[in-house]
Amino acid sequence: MSTKDLFRQKLTTIKAELPQGTDLLIVSKTRPIEEIKIYYELGHRDFGENRVQELMEKAEALKEVCPEIRWHMIGHLQTNKVNILFKVPQLYAIHSVHDLNLVKKLIQAEKNLQYKIQVFLQVNTSREEEKSGFEAAQEVKEAGELIKSSSNLNLAGLMTMGTLRTDNFESEALRCFQELNSVKKKLQNDLHLELKTSMGMSQDYKIALLENSNWIRLGTMMFK
Questions:
Q1: What ranges do the domains of the chain cover?
Q2: CATH architecture, range 3-222
Q3: What are phi and psi for residue 71, nearest 5 degrees?
Q4: What digits encode the pLDDT tens for the residues 111-156?
Q5: Is 25 helix (H, G, I), strand (E, B) or coil?
């Protein structure tokens, strides 16, 4: 089977699982641009990268041949990389805005944007120390208010990841996703906005779908 036929099969299979209102983000980190081009040719437009430098290189390489591509930053974002990130061609969203300091840096740099970028606040629902993300509800609200009042940033919603170090992987993933929905509901009421969720990866996306995730982020399973 050719790579294109394999990718077509994977795309068809996963899209058949997605309910209305849920979109697929293909995580293309470490994958060659040739594979991204194949998925683009098959009609897919949303791709996620976790390193700013790799994202920039791929976006520059593909901006002519894939003019409708939409890039999503999904990895830990350092404040000193914000200005570089905002120069990425066809940048669409940042899923990993993890604290107030980063929010303020994004707002300071937003004058460099030519169009609005979608922002997801990362919430650390697992409370694992190695993960970034908001934990205090008041800080989530404060961050949301700052972004809501900005000119080139649009508060799209909230992002989380399930617990990694656990013997109860499925139940922990469900707890994390339910908690994110609870935070989202409160924030929607506080800010009078309609918000989305970005949750669910290759190992737990089926659980995320049960919790009505709007974006699932699938990497390895889409390429092998």
A1: 3-222
A2: Alpha-Beta Barrel (3.20)
A3: -95, 140
A4: 999 999 999 999 999 887 778 899 988 999 999 999 999 999 999 9
A5: strand
Residue with tokens 């469900």: 174
Contact between 139 and 161 under an 8 Å Cβ cutoff? The reply is no
The DSSP bridge pattern shows strands 70-73 and 196-198 to be unpaired
Residues whose CB falls within 8 Å of the CB of residue 110, separated by 6 or more in sequence, listed in order: 86, 117, 150, 151, 152, 153
Which residue's entry shows tokens 């930053």?
A: 73
CA atoms of 204 and 201, how far apart (whole Å)? 5
pLDDT in tens, 166-209: 878 899 999 999 999 999 999 999 999 999 999 999 999 999 99
The token pair at 98 is 């993890």
Who contacts 168 (Cβ-Cβ below 8 Å, separation ≥6)? none
- Contact present, 26 and 71 (Cβ < 8 Å): no
- DSSP summary character for residue 18: P
The span from the CA of 3 to the CA of 21, in Å, is: 28
Structure tokens at 178: 């339910």
Task: Return d(Cα 107, Cα 200) in angstroms, integer.
Answer: 28
Q: Is the dihedral of CA 98, 101, 104, 105 positive or negative?
A: negative
* Cα separation of the two ends of the chain: 12
**Residue 90 exposed, middle or buried by CB count within 10 Å (0-12, 13-18, 19+):** middle
